[in-house]
Batch of 2 targets.
Target 1
Amino acid sequence: MDAHAHEHPNSSPPVAGLLAQFASPEALRAAAAAVRAAGWTRWDVHSPFPIHGIDRAMGLRPSPLPWLVLGAAVVGVVLALAMQLWMNGIDYPLIISGKPLLSLPTSVPIMFELGVLLAAIAAFVGAIALGGLPLYGHPVFFSSRFSRASTDGFFIFLAADDQRFEPISAQALLRSAGAVSVETLQVDEASGRVPGGLYWILATAVVLALLPPVLVTWYRTGPKSNPRIHLIQDMDFQEKYRPQSASPLFADGRATRPTVPETIPQGRLQADEHLYTGKVAEQWVTTFPMQPTAAMMERGRERYGIFCTTCHGLVGEGGVSGITSARAVKRREPNWVLPLSLHTQSVREQPVGQLFHTITHGVRTMPALGAQIPAEDRWAIVLYVRALQRSQNATLDDVPEPIRSQLRPVSP
Amino acid sequence: MSNTTGAEKQTLLPATTAGAAAALLVVGLAGMACAAALEYGRGDQWRYFLHSYLVNFCFFTSLSLGALFFVLLQHVARAGWSVTVRRLAELLAANVVVMLVLFVPLAASVLAGQGTLYPWAAPHTAAADHAIEQKQAYLNPTFFVVRSVGYLVVWWLTARYLLRLSLRQDESHDAALTLSMERFSPLALILLVVTLTFASFDWLMSLWPHWWSTIFGVYYLAGAAVGFVALLIIFTVLLERAGPLTDQVTAEHYHDLGKLLLAGVAFWGYVAFSQYLLIWYANIPEETAWYQPRHGGPWGWMSLGLLAGHLALPLVGLLSRWPKRNRLSLTFWAVWLLVMHWIDLYWSVMPAYDPHQPPWALSDAFCLVGMGGVYLGALIWRCRGRSLVPLGDPRRQEALDFENY
């Protein structure tokens, strides 16, 4: 027996435990069963590879890890669903591809991925934590034999803090279980303690890691005079051509490409002169290119409300009746020209074709709106403007017969 | 194993079961005759019968294909645990030769050019439809039959080669045969997946000649894997009780077969959803045409039933350790999933007959019993006098000692 145990009965440091080496996996399994039968609770086995049946021999209960993993997976799935429902359906409702705001099929891939991710993290972290790691030091590392636990050594370690621990009987137990050698390990106070510097390094790392999110949060909440921090540069400043910028790719150096000569893009053919120009044979038309209907009038009212009221006002009297005009006057904008009333004699006498042309191309300080408003909608607006003009210059004949009696004279 | 001759005798099918082969064949032919007789009265040029027949043809073919896939996979992975159940898979895979005979009615219907089963097979349909006309180079009766026979022959020869080597090893205990099978398997696996993909395109997808889905072959493979593992579990439980597999399988084997079943369920669900999500999201009429009849009404309920029965319930039911190690619960889920696999194929085929509702008929049952009788009868006939365990496999002891961590 080469048990070169350091026996210092009087002045020795406290005993950490006994380390016994065994010759084979089978011997280790049998010894583990013997130690378990003797009623030990604070002990462990070490082997270079997993040994079938060692968990049964040691009397280990089934690991709670599967339940941790399942719980994490369920949390991931529910979290992903809630996140998508909140973001797409409530916080920033955005219809994509005509799908419902709260759509389950589109959420499934993220639910699956987050479920897998959290399950994998739970398995990884859970396996480490349930194994009692991280551990800075362990008495077995002071045995020179123990390095063989990663190649061909099979060990049992009996910890001294077990209630049954008593050096002589524990040695006897291990030897009777077939140990090749038994070694008494001492608690090494100095090297078993975590160095104080490590805590400082960890604390510094945590503080440093917290700095970026704190800075970002500080910049993103509330107004700042400096631009916010651009975390993802190539999303905020994309490499792309802007209108009228230069490109070396083309001979004329322009990035914006003009239409190919003598071609018309798909859907841009405007062959109907009446519909698209408001003129026929260089003369303003006086009729609508389509049959006016109640639906067209309603469309015109809606489009007028969107595009015209900010300057011309709800009934078209111009001046400061529109909110843009009112604000410009209030701010004393030097170059602001008051919008015209649509009810003057000259405007009322204009043919509908000329009104259409004005909306399309603008006039004087009024901008052209042909690019924003489709031709059919422009005609609808013209129709509604005609209705407004009639409403502001109505005669008694315009009032339907049955309700004329309800009219009261207005005192001058 | 010291007593080899004793073990050899024990792993044979009991004499009484071997006698059942002829009875099953008779039952099968009678069932098929009943189905045909019932359908003769319908007067629809066998249209319903052929659809029902195709469901069962694809079902039993998939069981053999799943078996072939399993055998090849075990060799590619150099698996030791599965040796004691591998012979059953080898026999099931070789049984695909029966499908070559059972393909005759399908071939006849396509060659008749009436388009009763596949619309593209009728010349007038193709002439009236530009898209189908353009596909005639591939989708024409002669090429279809040549391809189909080609697939079946390739599968049969692959399975037969593996079975022969394995049987030879029973006698010789020659480890070199294992190496031969391992060298053969990777290429055979690629060939199997390619032929299986095209077979699913031809037999199932071309029921809708306008529609296509490149993942459809994987969908059929996933279903085949589930169906085969379910059947293997049922066979293993029965044979362990009857004798040939007693002392050859342990709870560890059931545990691993259960894991494969669970993996198959997840695989099927993943592929089925992958196919559905892209088509649903893009919402292009020519792509949604296949799902449109399955999206509402009675077919829609069956779709939801598959989602629950073929994915959600077995996924939860098989997740834990004990249901996979317990023979009773594992058998329950195996039977359940075998039924689900059949319903999955019914759901894949039958909307081509009636897009509004499942057209159940009594002849469906006769057709299933008929083809099942022929298939199982031939399988038992094939097992006659052959050990149901590869006794000469060098990894058999590893399989017997096998333990899950």
Note: Residues 4-401 of chain B form one domain.
Target 2
Amino acid sequence: MNVVAGATSCPVAAPRIRAALVFGVLAILVAVVLVANVGIGSVAISPAEILEMLRRPGDDSIVGAIVWKIRIPRAIAAVVGGAYLAVSGLLLQVYFRNPIVGPFILGISSGATVMVSLVMLTSLTVGLTVLSPFMTTLAAFAGAYGVMMIVVAVAARVKNSVTLLIVGLMMGYLCGAVTAVLTALAEKEKIKGFVLWQLGSFSGFKWSEIQVLLVGGGLVLVLIYTLSKPLNAFLLGEEYAASMGVPIRRFRVLILLCACALAGMITAAAGPVAFVGLAVPHMARLSFATSDNRVLIPGACLIGALVTSLCDLVARMLLSPVELPLSAITAFFGAPIVIGLLLKRRVEM
Amino acid sequence: MKKHLKQPTKPEDRSPVLTCRNLTVGYKDKPVLSGVDLSLEAGHFVTLLGPNGAGKTTLLRTLSRHLAPLSGDIRIHGRPLAAMRAAELARFMAVVLTNKVAPPLFSVYEFVALGRYPHTDFLGRLGPDDHAAVQSALAAVRAEGLARRIFTDLSDGERQKALVARALAQQPQLLLLDEPTLHLDLKHRLEVMAILRDLCRKRKITVLASLHDVDVAAKVSDRVALIKDGRLSAWGAPEQILTGGSVAALYDFDGAAFSRHLGGIEMRGDGSRGRAFVVAGMGSGAQIYRLLAKRGFAIATGVLHTNDLDYFVARSLGAECAIQSSMQAIDHHNLAAADQLSAGCDVVIDCGFEVGPMNEANLTLVKNAVGAGRAVFSLRGNGTGAPEEGQAGHGCIRCQDPGHLLDLLESYLAVKHGAPQAAQSEKESVS
């Protein structure tokens, strides 16, 4: 038993040690996978070379170009994308008090897809293409938020989680239908880009996009972390949370805005990536053995980063030089995990 | 700022903890309760009683500010409820709701610590004060042993204690509970009520709870509010408010009655099995009356002194009684009345009451019944009684205990009527 200063036996100390250990292990793993993602590829680069290159940004050699223009942006994008999607899923699971929601399942990704298809496939953006990546990001965010609002409106009427799930699925189908119609009407040259985007990939990230992701998403993450206390109170349901002094209305809007911002941002840049937002929060809960969001928010970031980086590595290397769609890999890995967790009933909320 | 708000208890503040004036509560345009006037004193246990759907929960939700009042005034120590800041209110009032909560992977300690929300910093870190408050809350609900258990693994009763502890961790002056004993077994029901009563007595917390058990409410409450037909039908001390009549009206009782002397509810029989005359007294009849009522007998009894436990039970069960003023020997007048009641009954039961100068006349009733050839069942002590008791027992069907009495009664009725369940033909054959 842990006896803390003041002789107060405090049952919270043991989980803290565990959390610190898990955080340490995860951080090391993420670093390892990050290095692997930069090093492994059609041109293998040793860790020593990577270190060397890190000291010379903008190096013009072939290796330098590969590291700085292709590998590092992609590795960072995978880390950031995984982290954001995981936190977005965590927020939604707390908000709906439902373990089987995530940005993809609730149709948020589909909503983003519709808006992005509007931007990418139609001539709406003629003359505005300069503004991309901001245009696609904004479009994705708008789409994500639009679908989210519809799902929330329905969720307010029906508390049943299965109904909520079906509504999300239906929203996904509707959005898919709109996207299909737009694709049928679009010019051929535009379709290829859109289809590639729709498969989901962290390749081809520009540094400007990375900056937007890091700064914008970073601010949202900080905001979310400051919300971790009301998020914890929210685990007891809205009424208890309100009775403890959580400003419910403001807080609800904030959670949804943050979740949509993170998921929308990643969907805009990398395309819809399935299952990370759904599976990673559960993995975080189990690894840290807690529902405390002060631990889970950074925890989900690390696990999301780790899982997505690994999936990206597999997508690139499994059938190299053919690159597999990222969503396929995340689904292969995520779906069995979710089914297993639900069957074991260890993640009921 | 955090520190000086921490102990909101001001002993010098004698104003009512919470007052309602002409309050109307409900949803949108549908008032559920109107004209509610209440005043909660510090340290009082206040109970809301009323049938399902009367509006108890709606009233509680309005007082906890989950619902806006439709009209009227709610004040906390004289200040309007609506004007209080959320954090301030959370340090003053805590709630225990009927909602199922099952946060995953929370130990009971962590769960209770969630109640520290209005006291902790913006990340919810627990300081020494917070740990002390959590420990004290766990101790108050006698749940120190549960601290390390996982919340979702608890039984209903343990869970309810953890929920009360979480509310206490807010260090409230006022605790609102919606049906705190719902779904609990008898042990936990009593334990939770005892815990709540102790909170009032020892910690001077005001408790406002909606309850279903009138008998429990009568025993723990300082004030009760009866809620029926969209209004507060009565408000005051349970000793004044809870009478057989008011409780029957509250719940539209049929076939049951609340007795304030007994502090509980008696279930009446439908009288379809025939009439039994019970010679009782000195508390010997209470159990027999209930047994007979349970089996559907109509009961007549006498002669009972008006200070006898048997008298109160018989009255609650709707028995016909021949009575005698307390502390007086039974006079011939009342004895004759009892004899007449006895003559109209199918069976006579002698409960084996203790005999003294005040009630020895009751033995005559037994003797007369035997003399008249009616079926008399006697529970009188097996050979231990005084000589005259032995005489009285002569010619009776002897029963060892109430269970035996019941068996003998059933077989007697079966023989008498040919078929055991011939309830209909009973009355005809009697006449």
Note: Residues 1-9 of chain A have pLDDT under 50 and may be disordered.
